[in-house]
Batch of 4 targets.
Target 1
Amino acid sequence: MSVIQPTSNHPTHAAVAVVAAQAPLQLIQVPTVAPAAGQVRVEVHWVASSPFDLHQAEGGFFLLAPPQLLGDTATGVVVEAGEEEDSLKIGDEVFCALVPVDKQPAHQEFITVAAHVFGKIPSNTPPQIAATIPSSFITTWHTLTNYLSIPLPFPKPSVYTPPNADAPILIWGAFSSVGQYVVQILKHYGYTNIVVTASKRHHDMLRSFGARETFDYTILEDLERLGDFLNIHAEGVGEGRVKVLDGIGSLEGSMEPLARMVPPGSLVAVLLPVIKKNLEGGVEYLMETQDVVSWKGGVETVGVRTHFYQQDEYLRNNLQPVIMPAMLEQGVIKPNRARVVEGRTFLERAQNALDMLRRKEVSGERLVWRVKET
């Protein structure tokens, strides 16, 4: 594809930035970058706000050089392509997850990044719904395949039975945006012993997604039953092992209870950063998972770093452009519920979404908002 010259009408564009921890967000102007070879420039239409945005804006986590832009998920339209890029064309509607501490995060009017981070939005999916998917989806797939070593062959063979299909797989916080995709994808690939924790009001939906056993992590009796269930079923795992995804990553809220009930020899993946409450009522961010709680003998833990998926050449080239759109189009995953955040301006919508996260108003859904005024 030939190079299309940058639009002279857009030498700069608006972006939402954190200027200091706990300070109001600000709107700043940043350069509009022309795509290099293998890159595209996308006009951003819809974005999602995530807990990672709150960690940066509120707690200063990975707030490296303010003003720092926010956002890891975007949808939009390709407006310019660099040389050697023929997988996308101008006018394609795309969705993507981006590295939120990179130079091109999502919460800005244009992004210029490698074409392989974009998938084409299926025609039956509205862009605001597509904005709920990428960051949670890549976290799900990367965690299952690379951190928990759970095979997910793609395309899935027409006849497929996974190894150790009946070994227990526990998802703590299964109604989270990541947890919902984990359950659905495991069911699609034939895993039959999917065990979940979530508030009781979400149990019916999680069973419809594929959960075999459901437990309420707020009820002590349920936690005791969960511990008994895992210990009984661990004895019949054979060559496998109990595998656990901590989709919450809270020292007190998830890791400590898991340490009390996960059987010896289990493998536990924890979404980073781990949140620890401090004595002043604030939070600390930990990147360690093994020695911060007292696990039983032989329990191995790994901390999940979502965007390290790009270190895997196959996933870098296929996860977002190929696998993600296919899983959506085929109905393997049902998108998270979307709550559209309103506001009079770009900045107001961004701030409103962040404030909703701060007030903990979100459960099992994603906050999405429009970048440009209609």
Target 2
Amino acid sequence: MKPPARPDRRQLVFRRAGIRAVDEAAIQKYGIPGVALMENAATALRDACLPRLDGADPLALIVTGPGNNGGDGLALARRLDNEHVRTATVLARSPDRYEGDAATNLRIVERMGLPLFIAGDSDPTSVLDAAVQSHGEPTMIVDAIFGTGLDRPMREPYPAIVSWINERGRGGVDIVAVDIPSGLDCDTGRPLGTGNDSAVRADLTVTLAGMKIGFFEPGASAWTGEVIVGDIGAPRELLEQLAVGSD
């Protein structure tokens, strides 16, 4: 008799609490360092982004928050640089706000000498404009600001940054979201704030470990665009245990 079929990552669906539990158990129960999970996420992101960066001298503008989502973006910056793709990374907050694995990847990016711009709290759009003036219009903007942990409307400077990203997207720049478009509720598939720019409008979302339940809600695809699942290296049995419907 054949063993029962195992669900693939595309079939595994998570709520906010479940995906948080995946990260915690992978680190605490299985002993996988958080920075290793981040590196695996960066590999998945690189593989998803490279085919979309096949033009002449492409530029990826990576906008990062201070948490793990931003750490994924920072790790992606150096992985793309290793593939000879030009990058410019914008820190949404001052460097001292980056902690843990995100700070580790920020230090690596700094030591590699990759282009970094600090938006901070005062006038983030002027810093984003400066990055474009310095390096040219981006082929792609990577949204690595907030992940699935966001459960309330964004506060400044983030709404201004999201509005800037969406304006570039309306102008034809490819927008790729890390895990989830910043500002979107992963459980409901709706923006946590109000207005047309209350969340990033992505062309592609590389969601990590498994699908998020809110992505199946009506209207969610207007924010997520195409969705693919990226492997972070969490044990299969752990993912299956914590996915929606596993209980």
Target 3
Amino acid sequence: MKRVLVTGGAGFIGHHLIEHLLKNTDWQIVCLDRLDTSGNLNRIREVLEGNVDFRKRYEFVWHDLKAAINSQIGGLIGKVSYIFHLAAAS
């Protein structure tokens, strides 16, 4: 099974990508976001609601990419097969 990292996953485009990946793959998904003004976990919560399989395959990691990824954050992310880099200031 693949494990993917989606940076900016709580944003508008990111949450649509996460929803697509959950519905169309069996991949583990790590969402990395700093949840500033445009990031909103309610979008993802609606996707996960009522689906145990989706909740098992989804993880959220809070991190601001303006800072380096230290060993603790790296450990939470783990080894990934793909990175979808969608994080940006809006």
Target 4
Amino acid sequence: MEATVRDLDGAEADSVELPAVFETQYRPDLIARAVRVAQANRKQDYGADEFAGLRTPAESFGSGRGMAHVPRQEGRGRRVPQTVKGRKAHPPKAEKDQSESINTKAKKLAVRSAIAATTDAELVAERGHEFDGDLELPVVVDDEFEDLQKTREVVDFLEATGLADDIERADEGRSVRSGQGKARGRKYKTPTSILFVTSSETGPSRAARNLAGADVTTAAEVNAEDLAPGAQPGRLTVWTESALEEVADR
């Protein structure tokens, strides 16, 4: 399988033979499993305080007020879960092991399958990405891209290639998160857009990081979650020539 190599002006500069990894069988089940394991292993330990539900100064009025005793009992009665402000019956335990595991071969196959999914225009479109319908996937750019230092230079390349609409889609899709997350440092949520895969962490890691929903990673570090956010394969991805050579060993 061959792919067109584009220069920074979006013009066809050359062609390159894609590594065999891009022809890996599509396995959405393994991809979803690998993403789920990665998410589980990032979870922070969470549990109830040892004295939760036992610190209130409330006391029972006793009888004679037409009021139930047990829900307002002081002392040992408040330890039961049905009392007002009583403790939970089975609260989350901080010592619980929330991590998950996946076989090494299955994890490797999941990454390879997710890489191959980036060549399927139908899958990429199903994820909601917007790009020029005539654009050949995967998008490969020559190694001059790795020397870019300015966000404006990356935007110019995306406009010339027909990928800028996806950044605009992510920017316009930014919205206020529902729930308590707003008060915990993550007020906004932004749709995922383009993934840039390079051979090393150089200019693009700084030049592209301000683009809405975009991520930059290296061929050696790219994982299933990078390629299939939310366990949905087919992320719109831009590869550099050197990255293609390195990803062949994944």
